[in-house]
Amino acid sequence: QLQYHTLPSSQNTQMVVSLQRQSARRLRLIRQTQNSSISLPLSLISSIFQTTRITADACRQSLLLHHHSHLPRSSSTNSTTVIPTSSTTIPNTNINTTTASTRRSRLHRHYPMKFNHFLPQHSLLSTLFFVTTIHNYYYYYYNTMSSSSSSSSLLPTVRALSTTTPLPPLSTPHITQHHLPLAQKAMTFFDASPDPFHAVQTCIQTLQSCGYTPLDMEQPLHTQLIKGGKYYFTKNQSTLVAFAVGEKFVPGGKGGFKIIGGHTDSPNLKIKPRSKRSAMVSSTGCVQIAVECYGGGLWHTWLDRDLGVSGRVFVKSSSPSENGGQEEIIVSKLVKLDRAVVRVPSLAIHLQTAKEREALEINKEDHLVPILSMVLEKALTKGTTIAPEEETEKQQQQPEEDDGWTEHQEPILLEMLANELQVNVKDIIDFELNLFDVQKASLGGAFSEFVHSARLDNLSSCFMAVEALVEHTSQEGSLESDVDISLVALFDHEEVGSESTTGAGSPIIQEAVSRICQAFLSQEESSISPSDATAITLAKSFVLSVDQAHAIHPNYSSKHEKGHAPKMNHGMVIKRNSNQRYATNAVTGLIIREIAKK
Asked: Which of 123, 330, 373, 530 fits a 20 to 30 Å CA distance from 544?
């Protein structure tokens, strides 16, 4: 299938033609195995790739010079044209335009070709050839060409490029480069926060590194707080409140609270309290775990993805007692199985009816059950396999500790958790776990202007809120003249209504504001009552509820109101609703716009 082109040198022609014949022979073998279940040997794939790479080298110069024909020419034969490159990864390249023009004319006489001439029809070989050609083309585009114009230089020296050699990025605008460090830091945060528990823990690590200290909310605050201090506390390990006290703050005085609110949870598949789903094992041969949908997710997007498991596990442990012995305690441990542990496979198209293909309908109870493994083979050490029916019967005969919990859990899942946490299976007494996509966050777009990640709603706000608080309080003298308290509140359960004890509808913020005001009021001589001081402080406070906004979708632009369609990377979005679904009014919206201008 490879196209033959006459080369200027008979020796080079023989080499390339020989390589093409080798590729043709391998291609016939590929065709023979195309409709069978035989896997191609790794050595064959490697050989095809090497052959294709070398053959691609023969066309590299023509492709390169064809591109250079569009470069601006210089009036001087000694002048050079500089190709713009990324200053962080690729050095600048100087191309002699006169030499390039000479080579172009010579090469095009021998084998005038276009880019699509190098795309064979067969899919596998086409893919290998296309990828290699693009790879080599970019590699030589960003490296200086030899100034020699002799015929021997027309076919460059064959080089086996490493498969790890990255393709150089396009030149990035200055404004995008300015934001790349922050975007990369955000992606690290997203990857480390697959659930609310890990999100809070990641935020705490950032806060502690900047001098924030934990508060014991079970003790009076007036003995723990000082002006100029930086603090945080958590609720259920999934809600976080962090704040910094201005040194000029006086309850009932000039200052108030500056609050940014967000939420730590995202729609996901949660493992049910009873994770065992053994009823189907005997008929399917697969071990599955029972899950349920949390929040309002696009559940079809969870199909055919590599999913990990994360959350918290409660484990029995022991600690020294007051009488010198050991007492049993229960501790909470965070766990993150960051690999492809389970998968929810979609139904093959051959098994779907025409109606099912037109509109995907998912039964949440049956179609979203992930596969954990095949049936356990406990006799591996003996070299025999237990049939599914025998395995199920054997499990039923084995006595289990009837504690009302363990017997309802999938044993393989418990084994994995115990191995990850380095504890005994019998010490695991409960868990709160969810599934997450193990694919890492990445930069996207020609100029890296997009961040691709799961859980952007609302980890992006959590990240930015904590970063803003830390940056504000890390500036020298920022708290010395501050009359306010800067506070960040990251709640759980927003995706299901915020009405839980750790949601935004809980009394967490109200209690925190009241206790902080009373703690500082008790340290000063004041005739204002605690309730009045708190009310006055609240009247001078401001709260931002920071969540995500849907930017206009280029493929579904009709879904947006034409006069109010937010655009990506065009700034902050202020949400307003005449039916008061949002708290924004003309005054508060104006304040935010004025702040944004500064």
From this structure: 530
